[in-house]
UniProtKB/TrEMBL annotation:
Residues 14-67 form the HTH cro/C1-type domain. This is Helix-turn-helix transcriptional regulator. InterPro entries: Cro/C1-type_HTH, Lambda_DNA-bd_dom_sf. PROSITE patterns: HTH_CROC1. It comes from Flavobacterium psychroterrae. It comes from the Bacteria. The keyword Ribonucleoprotein does not apply. Keywords: Coiled coil, DNA-binding. Residues 106-137 form a coiled coil.
């Protein structure tokens, strides 16, 4: 049978996506309310009803179209698009134009530490004010 007329084996695609997501059959089975053996049978099926496919796609965090169009070749091509030039730009990591980081995480960490320091200073001053107030009450009695 030529590859052009070979039927799409949806069960194998689900199995491969599940493996790429580092999910065991037991976890998928539990999420679907099925047994592990049922998942094994499902992954050996060439076709799956649309409602079940929608449930599986939701659990795997992908679209039904992603499952239907999944191929190892597409995955290899996808990951080969990440070249060394894609991993850096003038603002930091770019990671293939997906959610480019526009700030320096270390700067954010330092900012948060400064905020914490200011909060502690305000808390300390409030405690000092409270002690002074209480001392004044004691002195007046």
């Amino acid at each position: 049978m030529s590859t052009l007329t070979k039927p799409s084996h949806i069960g194998r695609k689900i199995s491969r996506i599940r493996e790429l997501k580092d999910m065991k059959q037991e976890a998928l089975a539990e999420a679907l309310g099925l047994s592990q053996q049922s998942i094994s049978n499902l992954e050996n099926s060439e076709t799956i009803d649309e409602d079940k496919l929608i449930q599986i796609a939701k659990i795997l965090g992908v679209t039904v179209e992603a499952i239907k169009n999944f191929s190892e070749e597409n995955m290899i091509n996808y990951f080969n698009t990440f070249t060394d030039n894609d991993f850096s730009n003038s603002q930091g990591a770019n990671f293939g134009h997906v959610n480019a980081c526009t700030f320096n995480p270390l700067d954010k960490l330092i900012e948060s530490q400064e905020e914490i320091k200011k909060l502690y200073e305000r808390l300390l001053q409030a405690e000092k004010d409270k002690i002074e107030y209480l001392e004044n009450i004691i002195k007046t009695k």
